[in-house]
C-alpha cells in the first residue's frame, strides 16, 4: 500500500529536483513508439523510419530537451516527422 506523505512533503520533493530532463529509458521507449508509429503511418520499413527519425530535427529537439518536445504525445511527434519530411521532399 502507498503511504501518503501529504502535500508539503510532495512539494519539497518537487522543489529539490531541479533537473527537468526526461528519464533516458523512458525517452528511449518513446523514441521506439514514435518510430514504429511513423513507419505504420507512412508505410515505410522500420529501418527507413529509424534512419529518418535519427536524422530529423524532431529527434534533435527531443534529445536536447528543447521546448519539452519529449513531453508531447507520440501522435504529435509523428505529425511533426511527417511534416518535416514532407517539406524536405518538396525542397529537393
* Biggest beta sheet attributes: none
**What's the pLDDT, averaged over the residues?**
80
Instruction: Determine the strand fraction and express it as a percent band.
Output: under 5%
Percent of residues in helices: over 70%
Give the total of domains.
1
Q: What overall form do the CA principal axes indicate?
A: globular
Query: Topology as H/E string?
Result: HHHHH
Could you characterize the architecture of this molecule?
With 92 residues, this protein is mainly alpha-helical. The chain has one domain. It contains five helices and no strands. Helix 2 crosses helix 3 (46-55) and helix 2 (24-42) packs across helix 5 (74-91). The model is unreliable at 1-18 (pLDDT under 50).
Concise structural overview:
The protein has 92 residues and is an all-alpha fold. The chain has helices at residues 6-16, 24-42, 46-55, 57-64, 74-91. It has one domain (22-91).
For the structure shown, list the relevant keywords.
92 residues; mainly alpha; 5 helices; 72% helix; 0% strand; globular; disordered N terminus
Which SSEs are present, and which pair or pack?
Layout lengths: L5 H11 L7 H19 L3 H10 L1 H8 L9 H18 L1
Amino acid at each position: 500500500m502507498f503511504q501518503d506523505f501529504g502535500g508539503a512533503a510532495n512539494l519539497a520533493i518537487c522543489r529539490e529536483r531541479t533537473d527537468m530532463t526526461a528519464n533516458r529509458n523512458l525517452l528511449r521507449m518513446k523514441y521506439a513508439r514514435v518510430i514504429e508509429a511513423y513507419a505504420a503511418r507512412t508505410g515505410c520499413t522500420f529501418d527507413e523510419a529509424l534512419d529518418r527519425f535519427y536524422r530529423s530535427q524532431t529527434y534533435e529537439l527531443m534529445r536536447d530537451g528543447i521546448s519539452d518536445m519529449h513531453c508531447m504525445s507520440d501522435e504529435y511527434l509523428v505529425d511533426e516527422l511527417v511534416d518535416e519530411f514532407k517539406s524536405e521532399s518538396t525542397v529537393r
